[in-house]
């Protein structure tokens, strides 16, 4: 795992502070390279091949590469294609493989990656991002000048950027920045499973897709549960083993109280007895995962550490944590993710996690109604009736109750495709759209959902694919990448292995949602590895007591930022912000906490990361 940066047609040298802006991603070594009108910079976190043989930028023939990520099957690829390399670095494998296969090599790679490959003869740069979007890559383009980087903050430190008001309004409306959107004008994120070709002579850029999960979701095949269980077990064990084996440094695991990280921990402990595991502990019992995580740690005798979140530290660190994302980021689980990564880095350099399991295997509660009803084809009379009934019912106070489930079902039944998807996912301002000064344009997201609706996929598949293409790369993977790399820690996700990405979408809906049981197949697999008490628990992640924080521990700093907002008032009415702060009884408590935090995160990002106050 590393940090990369590059420019095309830029007249001046890279400033010294560029090294500092990516130092946390690559503290071992920082090197650069310049030829013609191209500049490449690499910050190295050495994990595979710790010798000078793994140095970057790396040149082979007419090609020079800067690479961020890991190719877990690169040793097998060397053998398969009889590659003659001088080092044991996966970067060198990648270079040799490209010379042999060109872009066709991408189909062979099992890993996480974002890289830039310069062809000195053709004067072109190839930018590539992995299937799921594990590794980030942002691109600035204006006139014939381009720059690209692993982090937005590095671009913001180097370039005269201005904020994109439309993108920021979408952030508030949707809950995250999706697709190619970033908070800056002229800066886009290269989408997952895509590559871009840059003509360095003209400064033009063309983007193409090289992998799409939809194609696999369209190939659902009949399969016995026992056979599917065996295949998933085999693929996941292989993925865990590869992600442990392809590191020359110690590997650990993030362990929450859920099935996904529990399975990863169980398998990892079998391959590496005594592996270190880490979890977050809260004083608030409702959110404390430590007792469940301890069940797994005790069963597999891991070297377990519980990271107790200190509210005193949180008050000191919250602004730095938010600003580190380089964009407004409203997912409050970024906070415990930051602290557990910090604790892990004191002991090791590589950490495994359970990211991707929910999107691939049906882990969210919102998938249950999608599996049972085809909301896209509800008659209008049903939608109107559902709307009348929904409006007559009180807002649920317990999100885990049956009443909340029925309430959400009615909400989904009464809405159109776009509104339904937003409501079911991360729509923080749902039912409060009047807070915006003007409607937020979401035609691109609506169009993507319409294309999925016409693709022949089931309602459940449509929602899973939409989540895989939006929330996973736009929110969840961003969170883990920034949280881990802030401490020079590499996060690896076995569920996002090539084999599982190609297998899971082909499994029938009944193996994902069974009656009202989410993640059915993984729960069956968990019976082989995990305590029953953990299997019966609802989905967990690094959840936080956000309402308590907004009302107590973070109340002062949140109010200080929102009393005189510098950015949020461009999109949200001032009187609404004031009402959120001063009239808490006018809103459902959890809803209010999320809206406050989303606005607070935007303000902190703007003042600390953009204006450098």
TrEMBL record:
<protein>
    <recommendedName>
        <fullName>asparagine synthase (glutamine-hydrolyzing)</fullName>
        <ecNumber>6.3.5.4</ecNumber>
    </recommendedName>
</protein>
<keyword id="KW-0061">Asparagine biosynthesis</keyword>
<keyword id="KW-0436">Ligase</keyword>
<dbReference type="Pfam" id="PF00733">
    <property type="entry name" value="Asn_synthase"/>
</dbReference>
<dbReference type="GO" id="GO:0006529">
    <property type="term" value="P:asparagine biosynthetic process"/>
</dbReference>
<feature type="binding site">
    <location>
        <position position="90"/>
    </location>
    <ligand>
        <name>L-glutamine</name>
    </ligand>
</feature>
<dbReference type="GO" id="GO:0005829">
    <property type="term" value="C:cytosol"/>
</dbReference>
<dbReference type="InterPro" id="IPR029055">
    <property type="entry name" value="Ntn_hydrolases_N"/>
</dbReference>
<comment type="pathway">
    <text>Amino-acid biosynthesis; L-asparagine biosynthesis; L-asparagine from L-aspartate (L-Gln route): step 1/1.</text>
</comment>
<dbReference type="InterPro" id="IPR001962">
    <property type="entry name" value="Asn_synthase"/>
</dbReference>
<dbReference type="InterPro" id="IPR033738">
    <property type="entry name" value="AsnB_N"/>
</dbReference>
<keyword id="KW-0547">Nucleotide-binding</keyword>
<feature type="binding site">
    <location>
        <position position="280"/>
    </location>
    <ligand>
        <name>ATP</name>
    </ligand>
</feature>
<keyword id="KW-0067">ATP-binding</keyword>
<keyword id="KW-0315">Glutamine amidotransferase</keyword>
<feature type="active site" description="For GATase activity">
    <location>
        <position position="2"/>
    </location>
</feature>
<keyword id="KW-0028">Amino-acid biosynthesis</keyword>
<dbReference type="GO" id="GO:0005524">
    <property type="term" value="F:ATP binding"/>
</dbReference>
<dbReference type="InterPro" id="IPR006426">
    <property type="entry name" value="Asn_synth_AEB"/>
</dbReference>
<dbReference type="InterPro" id="IPR051786">
    <property type="entry name" value="ASN_synthetase/amidase"/>
</dbReference>
<comment type="similarity">
    <text>Belongs to the asparagine synthetase family.</text>
</comment>
<dbReference type="InterPro" id="IPR017932">
    <property type="entry name" value="GATase_2_dom"/>
</dbReference>
<dbReference type="GO" id="GO:0004066">
    <property type="term" value="F:asparagine synthase (glutamine-hydrolyzing) activity"/>
</dbReference>
<dbReference type="InterPro" id="IPR014729">
    <property type="entry name" value="Rossmann-like_a/b/a_fold"/>
</dbReference>
<feature type="domain" description="Glutamine amidotransferase type-2">
    <location>
        <begin position="2"/>
        <end position="201"/>
    </location>
</feature>
<feature type="site" description="Important for beta-aspartyl-AMP intermediate formation">
    <location>
        <position position="355"/>
    </location>
</feature>
<dbReference type="Pfam" id="PF13522">
    <property type="entry name" value="GATase_6"/>
</dbReference>
């Amino acid at each position: 795992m590393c940090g990369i940066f590059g420019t095309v047609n830029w007249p001046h040298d890279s400033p010294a502070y560029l090294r500092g802006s990516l130092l946390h991603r690559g503290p071992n070594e920082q090197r650069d390279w310049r030829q013609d009108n191209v500049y490449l910079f690499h910050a190295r976190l050495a994990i595979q091949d710790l010798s000078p043989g793994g140095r970057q930028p790396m040149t082979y023939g007419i090609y020079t590469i800067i690479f961020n990520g890991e190719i877990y099957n690169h040793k097998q690829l060397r053998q398969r294609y009889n590659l003659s390399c001088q080092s044991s670095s996966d970067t060198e494998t990648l270079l040799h493989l490209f010379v042999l296969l060109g872009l066709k090599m991408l189909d062979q790679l099992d890993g996480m990656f974002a890289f830039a490959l310069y062809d000195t003869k053709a004067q072109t740069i190839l930018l590539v991002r992995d299937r799921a979007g594990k590794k980030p890559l942002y691109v600035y383009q204006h006139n014939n000048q381009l720059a690209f980087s692993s982090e937005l903050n590095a671009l913001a430190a180097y370039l005269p950027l201005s904020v994109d008001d439309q993108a920021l309004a979408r952030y508030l409306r949707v809950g995250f920045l999706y697709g190619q959107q970033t908070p800056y004008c002229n800066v886009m994120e290269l989408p997952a499973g895509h590559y871009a070709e840059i003509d360095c002579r003209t400064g033009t850029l063309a983007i193409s897709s090289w992998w799409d999960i939809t194609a696999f979701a369209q190939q659902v095949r009949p399969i016995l549960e026992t056979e599917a269980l065996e295949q998933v077990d085999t693929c996941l064990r292989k993925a865990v083993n590869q992600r442990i084996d392809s590191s020359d440094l110690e590997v650990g695991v993030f362990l929450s109280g859920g099935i996904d990280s529990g399975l990863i921990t169980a398998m990892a402990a079998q391959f590496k007895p005594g592996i270190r595991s880490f979890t977050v502990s809260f004083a608030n019992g409702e959110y404390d995962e430590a007792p469940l995580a301890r069940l797994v740690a005790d069963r597999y005798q891991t070297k377990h550490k519980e990271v107790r979140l200190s509210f005193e530290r949180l008050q000191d660190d919250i602004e730095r944590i938010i600003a580190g994302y380089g964009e407004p980021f409203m997912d409050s689980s970024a906070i415990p993710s930051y602290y557990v990564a910090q604790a892990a880095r004191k002991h090791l350099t590589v950490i495994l996690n359970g990211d991707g399991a929910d999107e691939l295997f049906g882990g969210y509660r919102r998938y249950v109604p999608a599996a049972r009803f085809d909301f896209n084809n509800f008659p209008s009379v049903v939608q109107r009736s559902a709307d009348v009934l929904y409006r007559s019912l009180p807002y649920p106070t317990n999100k885990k109750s049956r009443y909340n489930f029925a309430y959400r079902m009615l909400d989904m039944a009464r809405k159109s495709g776009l509104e339904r998807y937003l409501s079911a996912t991360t729509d923080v301002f749902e039912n409060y759209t009047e807070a915006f000064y003007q409607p937020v344009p979401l035609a691109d997201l609506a169009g993507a959902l319409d294309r999925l609706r016409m693709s022949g996929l089931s309602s459940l598949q449509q929602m899973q694919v939409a989540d895989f293409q939006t929330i996973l790369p736009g929110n969840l993977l961003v969170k883990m990448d920034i949280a881990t790399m802030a401490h020079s820690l590499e996060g690896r996700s076995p569920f996002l292995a090539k084999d599982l990405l190609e297998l899971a979408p082909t499994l029938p809906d009944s193996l994902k949602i069974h009656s009202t049981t989410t993640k059915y197949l993984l729960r069956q697999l968990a019976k082989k590895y995990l305590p029953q008490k953990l299997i019966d628990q609802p989905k967990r992640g690094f959840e936080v007591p956000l309402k308590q924080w907004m009302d107590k521990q973070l109340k002062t700093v949140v109010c200080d930022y929102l009393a005189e907002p510098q950015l949020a008032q461009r999109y949200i009415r001032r009187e609404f912000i004031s009402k959120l702060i001063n009239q808490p009884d006018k809103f459902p408590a959890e809803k209010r906490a999320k809206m406050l935090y989303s606005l607070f995160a935007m303000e902190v990002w703007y003042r600390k990361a953009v204006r450098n106050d």
